[in-house]
Amino acid sequence: MRKKLKKRNSVSWVTYIVVLLIGLAMLYPIIWMFFATFKSNAEIFGSVKLLPSSFSFQSYIDGWHVNSKITYTTFFKNSFVMTIITTLFTVLSSAIVAYGFARYQFPGKKILFGILIATLMLPGAVVMIPRYAMFNKLGLVDTYWPFYLQGLLSVNSFFVFMLIQFIRGLPRELDESAYLDGCSDLKVFVKILVPLMKPALFSAGLFQFMWTYNDYTNVLIYINSVKKYTLSLALRLSLDAESVVQWNKVMAMSFLSILPLIILFFAAQKYFVEGIATSGLKG
Predict the structure, then answer these.
(1) Of the candidates 14, 37, 61, which is a domain's last residue?
(2) By residue range, what is the domain housing residue 116?
(3) Which of 7, 71, 180, 258 has its C-alpha lying 20 to 30 A from 212's C-alpha?
């Protein structure tokens, strides 16, 4: 028994060490980015050392001010406003559509569900031009409404499919008992299913938050005013603002821009893992 316990302990220690090394390898780019914020251009490109020769937060101060009129405060505010509202609309609409597909029988349900699944294989480049033309005719270009409407109308079928599979795993007896107690369809959805869907909803929200927050192409297409730029466009703007790029300032703002995602991921890690494990990516 002692030999078996020793073997198990040794195996567990080896596993921990391997996982730790893999984690450090994955985090190394972020660690390097952080220390690069304290280096000059010559030190970034002329040395392979991780640690800088000196530490100064001047790059953060200088990088925060793009020019005399605009700072990264505006860009952070724009990113959070656009991302949070889009995420909330996406989670809400996806949950409602998924509830309809998972719990109701209606004519053409199989055909509509097949179309829903087919859109998962549709490349984004195919719908990019018609979508822009539609929003341009509606006068919504240079606003955040193209993102809000796509979230509100549940355009991303991935989240709908994920939530459908999650709801199908919930016993129908819960709905039936609620109906016997006099609950309406809306109350069953809000009071019974939504609390049980928290892990899947958190996963969908986290995915949508990260994708919208990091989105560059769609923001570049729909947003024209610098004052409405999000962080992804602002970082590109900082590269074009100077003839000689000061990479320590770019790295400083890049590190600050990814910091909210890192904090969000670790704060919601429990719900994220639980939602993926129990959601619906199973058949």
Answers:
(1) 61
(2) 63-278
(3) 71
Kindly report whether the global pTM for this prediction surpasses the value 0.90.
Answer: no
- Structurally, the chain folds into a number of domains equal to 2
Cβ proximity of 256 and 62 under 8 Å: no
241 and 121 part of one domain: yes
- Do 87 and 182 lie in a common domain? yes
Q: What is the mean pLDDT of each run of 10 residues along the chain (283 residues)?
A: 60 82 89 92 86 89 85 94 96 94 90 90 87 94 95 91 90 88 89 89 90 93 93 84 80 93 82 59 42
Instruction: Please tell me whether residues 212 and 119 are part of one structural domain.
Output: yes
Cα distance between residue 153 and residue 86, in whole Å: 11
